[in-house]
Design goal:
The chain has helices at about 15-30, 45-50, 55, 105-115, 130-140, 180-200, 210-225, 275-290, 305-315, and strands at about 5-10, 60-65, 70-80, 90-95, 120-130, 145, 155-160, 175, 230-235, 245-250, 260-270, 295-300, 315-325, 335-340. The chain is α+β, with helices and mostly antiparallel strands and about 350 residues long. The protein has two domains: about 5-160, Aminopeptidase (3-Layer(aba) Sandwich), CATH 3.40.630.30; about 175-340, Aminopeptidase, CATH 3.40.630. Strands 8-9-10-11-12-14-13 form a seven-stranded mixed β-sheet, sandwiched between helices. The longest helix has 21 residues, at about 180-200.
Length: about 350
């Protein structure tokens, strides 16, 4: 069952917090090769967090991911700033049954958003090297390796600089849209996004100038597909809920192709480019696809377009180029390059 997550801050004494922290630490100790049976048997520092989070995180920000039934499915902690003014993201945890549906990325977005609003220059985290999927997520979100502040073997230290200058935008919110939300945004935000992309030269299957009514009709068709499970949609929203970007995932519908999916219509508004939205939208779709059991993703894009750089940075492989495959918005035939990416659980690094 799909999980539509909402991330919200809670007080550390929220009754849902201890179980999530205990699950995180019990899993971590098992991965270290020193499993314990209960939170009471954890090492003292971790035991204190799991049994008394109100004290352990009294000065920190705790964020919960909750589903439509208001059930907590994940947690992350943003610590108070250290002496250098940089807070740390800790204890990212998503319940196993809710993984692969965007909860981890939503929690990270929430933590980064809180840090940005606090005006700090950066945010940092540490992660065990064997957590390959988590590392891949952090890198897609813009975290880079820095000099370690914790010298325990097998621990990787990462940091992300934040744009905190006066007047700068806060990070956009990435949201998975249900069919009703797609229909609500189709006549204005989504239609305007598609028109901007096509009129700006993006090869998305339409010719310029694109009629806003035609763009809205296309999104309404997408809503119908989403309703029957034939397409999944994510959007990036800025202040005032303005739509800044979108991406869709189409799962294979053939009996011999249900292991794969297609990334279609990755769009970022021209006024919002350069903020990493394309990478974040792509990461949300990839994470969801892996959680649904897909093992291969494909896409096509106009050869030598700016999108190619994004896909290569994100680990996609070019499979070949077809000349004169599709007309660009001006009606000129252009070559198209096909890309693929294998997804799913990454091998553990020993």
């Amino acid at each position: 069952m799909n999980v539509y997550c909402t991330v919200r801050p809670v007080t550390p004494d929220d009754p849902r917090v201890p179980a999530l922290l205990a699950a995180y630490h019990l899993r971590t100790e098992a991965e270290k090769g020193v499993p314990v049976a209960s939170a009471a048997e954890l090492p003292p520092a971790y035991r204190a967090e799991a049994l008394d989070p109100a004290t352990a995180f009294a000065a920190d920000t705790v964020l919960l991911a909750v589903d439509e039934a208001d059930t907590a499915v994940g947690l992350v902690v943003l610590t108070a700033s250290h002496q250098d003014g940089v807070p740390e993201i800790k204890r990212l945890w998503v319940a196993p049954e809710a993984r692969g549906k965007g909860a981890a990325a939503a929690l990270m977005d929430g933590a980064v958003d809180h840090a940005t609003r606090a005006g700090v220059p950066a945010v940092r985290l540490s992660v065990w090297l064997w957590r390959g999927r988590a590392i891949a997520l952090y890198r897609r979100l813009g975290f880079e390796t820095v000099r370690p502040w914790d010298d325990r073997p097998g621990l990787l230290c990462l940091e992300k600089p934040l744009r905190t200058a006066a007047g700068s935008d806060t990070p956009a919110r990435i949201e998975r849209l249900a069919a009703a939300r797609i229909r609500a945004h189709a006549p204005d935000g989504l239609a305007a996004l598609l028109v901007d992309a096509v009129d700006g030269g993006a090869s998305l299957g339409f010719l310029a100038p694109l009629d806003p009514a035609e763009a809205a009709d296309w999104w309404l068709t997408v809503a119908d597909e989403a309703e029957r499970g034939a397409r999944t949609v994510w959007t990036a929203h800025g202040p005032g809920d303005v739509v800044l970007g979108a991406v869709t995932l189409v799962p294979g519908d053939k009996a011999n192709g249900r292991h794969r999916g297609e990334i279609a219509r990755l769009i970022v508004h021209r006024g919002a480019r350069g903020q990493g939205l394309g990478g974040r939208l792509l990461a949300a779709a990839e994470e969801h696809a892996a959680g649904e059991g897909l093992t291969l993703l494909v896409l096509d894009t106009q050869t030598d377009s700016p999108a190619e750089r994004l896909y290569r940075r994100a680990g996609w492989t070019a499979a070949g180029t077809i000349p004169d495959y599709a007309a660009d918005p001006a009606g000129i035939l252009r070559p198209t390059t096909l890309y693929y990416k294998r997804i799913g659980p990454l091998p553990r690094t020993e």
